[in-house]
Amino acid sequence: MTQEFSFPTQDFILLGKVVKAHGMRGEFKMVSFSGQPENLSAYKELILVDRKGTMSPALSVISTRNKGKMAIVHLESISDRTRAEYLEGMGVLLARKELPALKEDEFYWHEVIGKKVNDLTGVFVGTVGNIFSNGKQDILVIHDGENEILVPITRETIVAETGEAVTIDPPPGLLELYRNSAGNGYPPE
Description:
Elements: E1 12-22, E2 27-32, E3 45-49, E4 59-67, E5 70-75, H1 81-86, E6 91-95, H2 109-112, E7 116-119, E8 124-133, E9 138-143, E10 148-152, E11 158-161, E12 165-168, H3 174-179
Parallel strand pairs: 7-12
Antiparallel strand pairs: 1-2, 1-6, 2-5, 3-4, 3-6, 4-5, 7-8, 8-9, 9-10, 11-12
GO molecular function: ribosome binding
GO biological process, one term: ribosomal small subunit biogenesis
Domain Ribosome maturation factor RimM PRC barrel: 109-174
């Protein structure tokens, strides 16, 4: 998703994308790339970026609320529908320094995308391509060159995350199911 927008990734993370204006007071609907739009309420300021990389100054968050899988956001200086409509398609950024500290066994999604994935014995499984929420839990999407392997993110399956790799202990037989799927990325029926 970050390839869609140009911004200094060492300083900012892409939280989501403005979908469309909502109402008449400057609110907009936003899809959250973290799968957890409720987390937006913890942030005091957000930055908007267009596809050319033009970034807004930090804008104070007036309000956020959930609407299904989306968030409805109201930022300072976006006071009417016309201004909110102008934002459609823009990325929503957060300064990395604004991220709350995590517990030892937690990680942010953006920190693991692109990392190598190994099993408990150190054998290379693939690379993290994406993470998404299916509504009940988060899912790690691993690409092994031929297959897309979906692994539930639980304390039991994600054993370790370091600067270099993620170590997984998938449910028995899960990797074999995907690898025997004729390359379509889905377990056989």
